[in-house]
Amino acid sequence: MIESTIKIKDYNIRVYSLNTVVVGTGAAGFNAADRLVEYGQKDIAIVTEGINAGTSRNTGSDKQTYYKLTLSGYEPDSIRELAKTLFDGQCMDGDIALCEAALSAQCFLKLVELGVPFPRNRYGEYIGYKTDHDPRRRATSAGPYTSKFMTECLEKAVRAKNVKIFDKMQVIKILTKDNRLFGLLCIDLENLHNADKRYVAFNCKNVIYATGGPAGMYADSVYPIGHYGATGIAFEAGVMGKNLTEWQYGLSSINPRWNVSGTYMQVLPKFISTDKNGNDEREFLFDFFSDKGDMLTKVFLKGYQWPFDVRKIDGGSSIIDILVYIETCIKGRRVFLDFRDNPGGEEIDFSILAPEAREYLERAGATFGTPIERLMHMNAPAVNFYKDKGVDLHKEPLEIALCAQHNNGGLTIDKWWQTNIEGFFAAGEVSGSHGVYRPGGTALNSGQVGSTRAAQYIAANRKGNPADLDTFKDATLNAISDSISMGDTALADCDNVDEIWQNAAKRMSRFGAAIRSIEDIRKVTEEIKGELENFASLVKTSSVNNLHKVYRLYDILICQYVYLMAMVDYVENGGKSRGSALYTDKNGKLPYDSLPDIFRYTLDDGSRGNMVQEVLYKNGICEFNWRKVRDIPEDDDFFENVWRSYRENGNIF
Question: Distance (Å, rounded) from C-alpha 469 to C-alpha 638?
Answer without folding.
Answer: 48
